[in-house]
Write a structure and sequence with these properties.
alpha+beta, globular, two-stranded antiparallel sheet, 180 residues
Length: 180
């Protein structure tokens, strides 16, 4: 009986390993199709302090700010370049599934895609793209340049939509992380 349990456990691990290898193959194939020739004409270097200042503007007064920024510099872009990038990078890779692939997983997945794009494109700094949390939802945030003004907007990785932060319960920002 113990041998049978061991064999079943081994076969399950082997199956999981094969499935992960297939996911890795699919991911590598997908990254080979990254739109690296996509022109990003509006890159503008912004500092850690500027990223933090922009983020602070979008916290509502009754919420303690929680902003984590990993690097000293990032690139902000015009909204048109962000839209082009999202249109070309977005894929709905998995079906939403509670606890295993829900909103936080979608936002982490898209953050990884944008970070990898920055690396493969050969940019000196990461794009100003991170993760935001409300009390009930996770989503992505990005900084865009509107003339000389920098704005933080929300990117919803499950639907590929962008919008200004608002006071709806789903998007009241309580935490932001720019990590790379």
């Amino acid at each position: 009986m113990n041998v049978l349990k061991y064999l079943i456990g081994f076969l399950n691990q082997f199956y999981n390993c094969l499935r992960e290898r297939e996911d890795l193959r699919r991911f590598i194939k997908e990254t080979q199709n990254y739109p690296l020739t996509l022109p990003l004409n509006s890159l503008k270097k912004i500092s850690y302090a500027k990223v933090k200042a922009v983020c602070r503007n979008y916290f509502f007064q009754d919420i303690d700010e929680d902003i984590s920024i990993a690097d000293n510099y990032y690139y902000a872009m015009d909204i048109e370049d962000w839209e082009k990038l999202f249109r070309n990078l977005w894929i709905k890779p998995f079906k939403w599934e509670k606890e295993i692939f829900d909103c936080d997983d979608f936002s982490i997945f898209m953050l990884n895609r944008v970070m990898l794009y920055s690396k493969l494109k050969g940019l000196k700094y990461q794009l100003a793209f991170g993760i935001g949390w409300s009390y009930i939802h996770s989503f992505n945030v990005f900084i865009w340049r509107d003339g000389g003004i920098y704005r933080l907007w929300i990117y919803e990785p499950q639907t590929n939509e962008i919008e200004a932060p608002n006071i709806s319960k789903e998007y009241i920002i309580r935490k932001i992380m720019f990590i790379s």
